């Protein structure tokens, strides 16, 4: 009997201890909870101070950005009044000015990207803009063309130095310049860069191929007539290149004329025709010389 009661007492004690342990796991100590709340409150206070600092910095940057914008329009009096609010000798003032200039440059680069990489400058105190379209060929910068446009009442080209043979008016109408200025500038850039590329090829031909005679070329460089000489027979061949696509640097059609028809019907000269249509002119002529087809 005594053994049984002792055994029952031990089991009861173990059950009680197990219940107490479970209750301790589910109910966190009061002191730990207080520490957690204090830590959260301190973190919130730190975050509040950070937000205050960010707001003050943003407001200072906005004032400096306004000052820089006024400077770009030569409004010096307002700029001096704005800068008087800042301490010129403080490190924070200098840092904020650098940050303002940095954000302004980033905004300008973003705008430059959005308009397709064209340089645009305000004119006549914001009443107009001047757009510059640069041309290049094979990594070489060539001519730059400028268009001055009125902004009001409608967007209108008032002055430009685009060559007269480029159909500027029809391009503006086709591209709907009023609603999509970027599309118009892209089309114009294609025409100008293709013209610059054809013109540059003609220049390189004259410089690099002295034995080839340029018989004819027009202002647009869309028609080009060359005189070749076959080395073996000393036969003259007239080559006409027609660049009917004015947005391309390669000819759409190549025609040979020669008194000896057998030469033009040969496989070599058929290949030469394809070469001239697929390769820049000065490079195609260099290949034809290396192959021994022309002098």
TrEMBL record:
An example Gene Ontology CC term for this record: nucleus
Region (Disordered): 57-93
Similarity remark: Belongs to the CENP-O/MCM21 family.
Principal localisation: nucleus
Pfam families on file: CENP-O
Domain of life: Eukaryota
Protein name, per record: Centromere protein O
Keywords attached to this entry: Centromere, Chromosome, Nucleus
Keyword Nucleus: yes
Regions annotated as coiled coil: none
Biased composition (Acidic residues): 75-91
Subcellular location: Chromosome, Centromere; Nucleus
Transmembrane segments: none
């Amino acid at each position: 009997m005594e053994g049984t009661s002792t055994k029952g007492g031990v089991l009861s004690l173990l059950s009680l201890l197990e219940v107490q342990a479970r209750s301790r796991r589910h109910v966190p100590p009061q002191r730990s909870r207080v520490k957690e709340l204090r830590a959260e409150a301190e973190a919130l206070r730190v975050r509040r101070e950070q937000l205050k600092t960010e707001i003050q910095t943003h407001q200072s940057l906005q004032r400096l950005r306004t000052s820089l914008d006024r400077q770009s329009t030569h409004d010096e009096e307002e700029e001096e009044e704005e800068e008087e609010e800042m301490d010129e000798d403080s490190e924070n003032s200098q840092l904020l000015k650098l940050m303002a200039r940095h954000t302004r440059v980033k905004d300008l680069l973003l705008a430059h990207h959005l308009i397709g990489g064209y340089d645009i400058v305000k004119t006549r105190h914001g009443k107009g803009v001047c757009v510059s379209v640069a041309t290049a060929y094979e990594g070489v910068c060539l001519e730059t063309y400028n268009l001055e446009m009125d902004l009001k009442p409608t967007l209108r080209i008032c002055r430009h130095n685009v060559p007269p043979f480029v159909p500027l008016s029809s391009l503006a109408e086709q591209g709907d310049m009023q609603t999509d200025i970027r599309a118009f500038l892209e089309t114009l850039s294609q025409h100008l860069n293709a013209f610059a590329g054809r013109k540059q090829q003609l220049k390189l031909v004259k410089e690099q191929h002295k034995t080839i005679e340029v018989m004819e070329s027009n202002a647009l460089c869309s028609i080009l007539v060359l005189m070749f000489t076959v080395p073996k027979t000393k036969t003259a061949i007239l080559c006409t290149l027609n660049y009917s696509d004015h947005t391309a640097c390669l000819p759409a059609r190549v025609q040979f004329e020669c008194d000896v028809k057998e030469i033009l019907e040969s496989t070599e000269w058929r290949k030469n025709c394809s070469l001239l249509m697929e390769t820049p002119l000065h490079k195609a002529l260099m290949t034809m010389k290396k192959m021994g087809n022309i002098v």
